[in-house]
Amino acid sequence: MMVSYNELQALSRKAFLGIGFSEAQADDAADMVCWMESHELNGLVELNQALQRILAEDNRDKSPELLYQDADLAIIDGHDMSVLQCSHLPLELAFAKARARGLGVLKIRHCRQRQLIMGYLARLASRGMNITALWRHAQTPLTEQVVGFRANSTVPSIRIYTLEEIPDENKLNTGITVIMANHVDLLPTMRSDYSYDLLARHEESELLEVEVRRRASGDGFDVPSSLWDQLKTLAQRTFVESFEGSQLGAGPLD
Amino acid sequence: MLDSATLNTLAIRPPGVVMDLERLGSLTASRLSFSRSLLRQMARQRWQIQRERFELDEDGFGQTIYRLQTPNGRYHVVIFSHPLSDDQRSDRVTAEAWDLTFGLVEGDVEEALMCSLAENLPLQEAGRQNPQLLVISRANKSTRNFDAFVTALSRGQQPSIDDLKSSGYLYRTTAVYGNGKFGIKDYSRLRDNPDFRQPFAAQMIAVYVLRQFSIDQLEHIAARRAPGTAVPLSNAIQRYVGIGNSTGLGMAPFLINHPLLINQWIYCREQALALAKANLPDESARDRLVALCERAQQYYLESQVEDKDQAERNSTLLEELAHVTAWLQQMPAESTLWYQLTEWGEAALSLETQELLNSLLLEIYPESVDPLEDEMSVEEVQDLIPDMPLIQLKQIIETQFDWALSQDLTDPDERYWFWYRSIEKEEPRLGVRGVDQGEEKEIALAIGPRVQQVYLLLESYLEANPTGVAVDFLLEHSRVVDVVRRIQSMSNTAYGEIRGNLWHRELRPMHLLRTKLSFLGAGRFDPRGDRWVRVTFFQGAPSIAELNAEPADLSGFDDWSFALAPHQT
Predict the structure, then answer these.
(1) Residue A113 CB: number of other CB atoms within 10 A?
(2) How much is the pTM?
(3) Do B424 and A250 touch (CB under 8 A)?
(4) Do A246 and B431 touch (CB under 8 A)?
(5) Which of B241, B262, B290 is the last residue of a domain?
(6) Is residue B293 in some structural domain?
(7) For residue range B292-332, what is the model confidence (pLDDT) as tens digits?
(8) Residue of A nearest to B381 (CA)
(9) Which 3 state secondary structure label does DSSP give B350?
(10) DSSP letter, residue B564
(11) CA distance A157 to chain B (A)
(12) What is the predicted ipTM?
C-alpha cells in the first residue's frame, strides 16, 4: 500500500515507542528509516529485519556500553542491538570529539542493520561534518561497504565490493567504524593494490537526483501490508483503551 | 526578520509576559492570522475560483467541484454531500459519517481520480486517500440555520440573521487534515510551492471554498423547492456567513510539539506589535483605532456565547472597550500615545481586552506588519549540541526555564492530570493521575516537569563531572535526550515554550486551543466546557465573486475583521 513520508515517519515512531524505545530513540529511528527509503536504499527492508530481531530479543534493559574513550577515539559495545537502538549517542560522541580535535574515530562493536546508520550520518553531515563509515557484510566472500558524506551534503557516496584475497585473520565482524573530520573530505575513492570486484556504486549526484525527484513528485512509499499492519499493532501498545472517563475528551455530548 | 540592534530599540515584550498560558488563551485573530493573510495573497495575485461541476439533487446531495487558478498552478476542491440522519450527525471524533466530505486536489480531476475520491473521501480516516489530495475534511450542517435559510429563500425572502450571531455558519468542519495524513500529499511537497508558503494555507483555502459551497447548495435547494419564487441570498448576508469549526483536545499537542514554529508565530506577532507601537500616532491613526474599537464593541455586543465563563469575559471586554474608546478620544495624539495606551491597558484592563487592543493596533499599520506574514514558517530541526558544556546547559535551564523549575511537583495539584492517547482515533485525552487507567502510557506533553527532571539529574552529575559535556551526561541518562535537545534548540528563541504546567489541576486546555485558533484566524470563540470549542472562520470575508472581480482596492478588500450583522429591514 502507498503511504506518505509523514505517515511512515509517524507510525514508525509510534511503533518504536510501543517497543520501548525512548522518545529520542524513536524519533531518530523513524527518521533513519525514512531517510533510507526516500533515497531508495531499502529502508523498509532493513526496518522489517530490525523489527523481527528486536521483537525476537528483549533488549529493553540493554544500552550501548562505552568500553573505551580518549580525546580522539571511542569504542562502544552495541550488544548485538540494531543501530536504530545503539548508534545515535555514540555517533554524537564521535561528532563532539571531531569538533574538538579535528578528527574523531568511533568503533561500534556488535551491532545490526548497519545500513540504517546512514540515516543518522546524513543528519550529522548536514551539521557540517565530513564522515566515512566502513563495515563488512560477509566474510566469505569478504564484502565491505564504505560510505562517505561530505560536510553539509545531504547524500553520501557509497561503494560495496568483494575482495578476492582473504586475510588470515577473518573473524566474523559485526562492527562498524566511523571516522569524522571537521575540515577534510573523506569520500571513498577505490584505490587498492588488491583485486576487488565492485558490487555497487552510488555517487552523490545520483542520490541527490533521487532526493530531488522524490521531493518534487511527493510520491509516497509502497509499504508491504504485512509490515504496515505490524507497525500499527506495535503502535497500539502506546494507546489507552476507551473507558467512560476518556469520553470527556472526545467532544461535546450529542 | 529584524536585526538585534533594531529589536533592542523596540519595546518588544518579554517571554515571561507573552508566554503565560492565560494570556495566550486570550489572543484574538489579527491581520497576521492565516485566514487574513491568505485572502490578501489571493487578491494580490488575482486568484480565480470557478464552479466547474454542480451535480446536486433536489435535496442538495451529490458532487461539486470548484477550480482554483493561481499564478503557479491549478487546484480543485471536490465536495460530496450526503444524506445524514439526525442521530448520525455528531461532532465527536468518533463519528463515522457527516453531511459532507471534501478535499483539495492538486492538479486536474480526471474521472478515474473522481471515482477514487468518491469511494474514499466519505470514509475520511477509515479510507485510503489519494496522494493528489492536499487536504481532506468533513463538515456537518448547522441544521437550525440551514433549514431556516432554505425556508426563507424559498419563500422569496431573505432569512433572519439572528441565529448567525450565535453560530455564524451553515456548516462546521470537525477536522481538517493535511500533511500526508491517511495517504494524502506530504507537507514537504507544499513547502516549495509559493501558493502555500503560509502555514495551514492549503487547509484555509479548502475551508474558504466550502463557505461558497454552503451558499451555493442553500440557494440550489431553495430554487428547486420553489422555482420562480426562491431568491438568492443577499450579498450582505453572504458575507456574514462563515464556516464553523468544532475543535477539541486533538489540537493541544501541536502547540507543544512544534516549539520552533510557535516561537516564530509569536515572535512575528510581537515584532509586529512593537513596530506598530513605534509608529508616530496622528489624528487619523487615532480615529482609525477608535473606529476599530467601536466595531469590535458592536461585534461582541452582537455575539451570543453559551459558555458562562466566556460570556463573562466578553461582558468585561465590552465594558472595558467603552473606557478605551473614551480614553483614546481624550488623549492628545502625542508621540508616546501607543505606549501610554498599552501601559495603561496592562495596569487596568483584562487580558482579553489587552490582547484585543494589540490586534487592533496591528490593523492601523499594515505597512509595518504585513511583511512579517512571509516570516511565519520555519524549518523545524532540533539537533543535539553534544559538546555543550554541562555548566552551560544548566545555566540555560536556570535562565530560560526558570518557570519550569518553579513548579512544585510534590504538590498533588501540580501533578493532577496526565495526558494519553486514546485508542479512539488516537486522540489525546486527559486522565486523573492515580485514578484513571492509562498512566503508564502517558505522553510527554508537559515540558516543565521533564525539564525539572533533567535539571535534578544534571546537578547530581555535575558534582562528579564538573567539566563534562552534554553527550557524556546523556550516555548515562539516555531517556532524556529529547528534552536536552529541546532545551538546546530553544536556547536561541524567546517564545516557543508555553509557560504553564500541563499537569496542573487548574489547567484550562481551552487556552491551548485558543492560542492556535487565533493564529488560524478563528472568531466567535464559543467554548463548550473546558475541552471543546466552536469557532467561525471567514465570517465577514469577501466572497469568491468579489475575489474574482479582481478588486482594485486591496486594503478595502482586506478590511473584514470583526464582522458585523448586516442591517435588515
Answers:
(1) 24
(2) 0.94
(3) yes
(4) yes
(5) B241
(6) no
(7) 999 999 999 998 888 899 999 999 999 999 999 999 999 88
(8) A123
(9) coil
(10) P
(11) 23
(12) 0.94
